[in-house]
Each structure stands twice: as C-alpha cells, then as structure tokens.
Specification:
The structure is a single chain. Helix content is 61%, strand content 17%. It is α+β, with helices and mostly antiparallel strands. Strands 1-4 form a two-stranded antiparallel ribbon. Strands 2-3 form a two-stranded antiparallel sheet. The chain is built from three helices and four strands; from the N terminus they run H-E-E-E-E-H-H. It folds into two domains: 68 residues, no CATH class; 50 residues, no CATH class. The radius of gyration is 34 Å and the shape is rod-shaped. A hairpin with a 3-residue loop joins strand 2 and strand 3.
Length: 124
C-alpha cells in the first residue's frame, strides 16, 4: 500500500514538472514572432475500486500539451495561401510586363499622338 501511495504522489510531481517546463518554455519564447502559447492538459489516472473498502486513486497524468491559437487567424492564413497559389501565374505575367525596359507608356504615347493628329485633321 505504501508503495502505491509513493507512485501516486510521484505521478502528481511528474505532472507538475511538465506544467512547469511548459510554463518556462512559454516565458522563454514570449518575444518570438509566430510563437503560440502552450498549455498542459492533465487528468487523473484510472484508480482501483476495492470491494468493501472503496476507490483508491492512482495519481495523475499528462494527457496532452496543446497550442493556444486563434482559429479565425488560422483559417484566414489558409484562405490567403490558397488565393496566393491561385494568383501566382498572374504574378509571373505581371512581373514580365513590369520588367520591360521601355514600359507600356513608351508604346502607347506615339499611338496617342497619332490619334490626336488624325482627330485634328478631321476637324480642320
């Protein structure tokens, strides 16, 4: 019985240690860009039900270490990434046009001058 009580207490200490380590991890990364806080999920371990005596607990356990983040921001990130993937071929086309040395204005300007001259010829 005393051995069982020792392990029950030890399991509680192990869970507390995991929580402290996670807290230290959160504090060390508080200034890190993109870091999301973590938290420890704890639960009681299954106990033993002894007939005529009662229930004896068997300590605690760490169920999971979860990240705390905003679900809305995560869904927006997925949406923006999908839009970026869809528009990437167009971005390549736009980059090609912008990389031209003479630009569109140099092509359109002579056309507009000719158009203006033709219009003036019809007016006179």
């Amino acid at each position: 019985m005393s051995n069982s009580m020792f392990y029950t207490g030890l399991s509680g200490l192990n869970v507390a240690q995991a929580a402290l380590v996670t807290t230290g991890h959160n504090m060390a990364n508080v200034s890190t860009a993109g870091y999301s806080r973590q938290s420890v999920q704890m639960a009681s371990s299954s106990g033993v039900n002894m007939v005529g005596i009662g229930f004896f607990g068997s300590g605690a356990k760490v169920v999971a270490v979860t990240r705390s983040y905003d679900q809305y921001l995560a869904s927006q990130l997925v949406l923006v990434d999908a839009i970026n993937q869809r528009n990437s071929p167009y971005a390549g086309s736009c980059a090609w046009v912008l990389a031209l040395d003479f630009g569109l204005a140099a092509l359109i300007f002579p056309f507009l001058i000719t158009l203006k001259a033709a219009k003036m010829d019809k007016v006179v």
